[in-house]
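Same chain as my last thread, 102 residues:
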Amino acid sequence: MTRKPIVHGTITARFNHKCCCTPCREAGNRYTKERRAYHAARLKAGLANVIHGELMTYREYGCRCRLCKTANAVASAEYRAKKREERWSKMVEEQWSAPSRG
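reply #2:
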């Protein structure tokens, strides 16, 4: 079975096939910007059924209430800690796998 060729410059190519070419990145950026603007407009109009204090409400809907800001701060701190741990683990692994001198 042959695969269909990837059509570049589409959100399918960007998100499903993980293509990073310029047209696909631009399509993905355009889609994300439009989606966030749509969610923010619904939030401002009072039409969005959101739960405050969740990361999605901060990132997708653009809510900046105290609860949503706190959720983002916690998620960001957890992400930084995870990355710090990964860097530390990699450094220790490289140190132990390096040939000994002497």
